[in-house]
Amino acid sequence: MEIKINFNVPPYPGKEMEYMKEAVRNQKICGDGPFTRKCSQWIEAQTKTARCLLTPSCTQATELAALLLDIKEGDEVILPSYTFVSTADAFVLRGAKAVFVDIRPDTMNIDETLIEDAITDKTRAIAPVHYAGVGCEMDAIMEIAGKHHLAVVEDAAQGIMASYKGKALGTFGEFGCFSFHETKNLSMGEGGALLIRDENYIEDAEIIREKGTDRSKYHRGQVDKYRWQNYGSSYLPSDMNAAYLYAQLELAEEITKARMDRWNQYREMLLPLAEEGRIELPYIPSYCSHNAHMFYIKTKDLEERSALDAFLKGKGILPASHYVPLHSAPAGLKFGRFHGEDKYTTKESERLLRLPLYYELTADETEYVAEQVKTFYRQET
């Protein structure tokens, strides 16, 4: 059947093309132009972080964090297996081993009570992932990191406009990493940002991001010429991409509210099924403010999820499952190890099905999706 409701539609509030044309008129379409500065300043103000550096992707933001921490061969980094490959890739590329621990079944985040047992004399960092824009237990994670002198790199790819106990996700650890991929709440097609908490890292971050040169200082008039200072790469997005993103940052509150309205509508309509024990709905701790990045349900098992997925596609709806746990993937077996018991990671990942959710999704479309989910379970009785 023809798909009527896609899983995702990239946000497009309206000023994106106007700002991209302005970037062209500025005759500055490479990196670190006016729109890049506007985006960085907006994120710094919104998150209250010391410095934000826009990057071509969240993957590269995480790579930049790994370089700044001088992660190297023989090091270990603790992270959940239930995450996107980029969380592990950034550290594995530096020669580190990914040490996976189990997740909590309620939030699908890393189980903070299992982290300390996974620490060895080779552990250098912890990489918590804020799944669906719902914060990990950062108080406990930061306490463990402090006790063992470990760095924390937050994978906040899904976390912009979300907070834990009133503090923006991505601002607890030494570094936080945002994504502005087309599937995220705010998008520049491909893009990301590195949030830096400690000002002592800023100069090194600017140098590595600018091919190992002090070009950022040159642009600020702090040096007469820029020179090769360290190893580095090109971690700058085009200012045209930044222009696209800035149009959405200006409307971040509106976009978040629109998504939240649809999220709440799903929850209200599907709550009776959850109360009957047919499905489980997302759990949001009272001290977490999420951003409606995704709405998922959990089915009884993989077989039921597959049946529901096929049923919805037959009704013109495109849902989506999510990550295949990294520890079970070929590269996970090669570059990592699972510490402890996989009690929830695989089991819960096989039950989870994401429903369509995006800025322009209408109330009628949301109602249609929810009604089809209810129809599936009514026919199962």
Mean pLDDT: 96
> Cα-atom Rg, whole angstroms?
21 Å
Percent helix: 25-40%
**What's the CATH H-level superfamily name of the largest domain?**
Type I PLP-dependent aspartate aminotransferase-like (Major domain)
Instruction: Give the low-confidence spans.
Output: none
Strand residue percentage: 5-15%
Number of strands: 13
Top-tier CATH class of the largest domain: Alpha Beta
Topology:
Layout: H1 16-25, H2 34-47, E1 51-55, H3 58-68, E2 76-80, H4 85-92, E3 97-101, E4 123-126, H5 138-148, E5 151-155, E6 163-164, E7 167-168, E8 175-179, E9 192-196, H6 202-209, H7 215-219, H8 239-249, H9 252-275, E10 288-289, E11 295-298, H10 302-314, H11 330-335, E12 336-338, H12 345-349, E13 352-355, H13 363-380
Parallel strand pairs: 2-3, 2-4, 3-12, 4-5, 5-8
Antiparallel strand pairs: 1-9, 6-7, 6-10, 8-9, 11-13
Helix pairs in contact: 1-8, 2-8, 3-4, 3-6, 9-13
Give an overview of the whole structure.
The chain has 381 residues and is α/β, with parallel strands linked by helices. The protein folds into two domains: 16-249, Aspartate Aminotransferase, domain 2 (3-Layer(aba) Sandwich), CATH 3.40.640.10; 252-380, Aspartate Aminotransferase, domain 1. Helices cover 38% and strands 13% of the residues. The protein has 13 helices and 13 strands. The strands form three sheets. An eight-stranded mixed β-sheet has the order 1-9-8-5-4-2-3-12, sandwiched between helices. Helix 3 packs across helix 6 (202-209). The chain is globular, with a radius of gyration of 21 Å.
